[in-house]
Amino acid sequence: MEIIFDVIGNTLIVEFFGELDHHAAEKTRVKIDTAMDNYMTKNLVMDFSKVSFMDSSGIGMVLGRYRKMGENSCNMAIVGCSKTIRNILNMAGVFSIIDYYGTREEAIEGFDRKEVS
Predict the structure, then answer these.
(1) Which of 2, 56, 83, 106 gives the lowest tally of CB atoms within 10 Å of its CB?
(2) Which of the four CATH numbers 3.30.750.24, 3.40.50.1110, 2.60.120.280, 2.60.120.330 does domain 2-116 have?
(3) What's the predicted TM-score (pTM) here?
(4) Backbone angles phi and psi of 107, in degrees to 5
């Protein structure tokens, strides 16, 4: 699993490449938590457009980051899932608590709308 970080304004974008399974979930969690602490952003976008496989460990990593963002009164969104990954996250109930957008730009606009409301 490769991860690329990008910061746009107050948003940390995490782009995943490869398989998010039990082998990668813990290392991924540590890298994201470190980046969140270093950049101190208010928003987190997870981009799954290049993820080919995800298991329950990946779902747990996502939910753990959601919990951490909530503890800091921050926002989180997921973008760019393949149909398979989106179905996995949907069946796990992830989209009942985390917003899904087609693109990073849409997610950032969604965060901006929440700040204005």
Answers:
(1) 83
(2) 3.30.750.24
(3) 0.94
(4) -65, -45
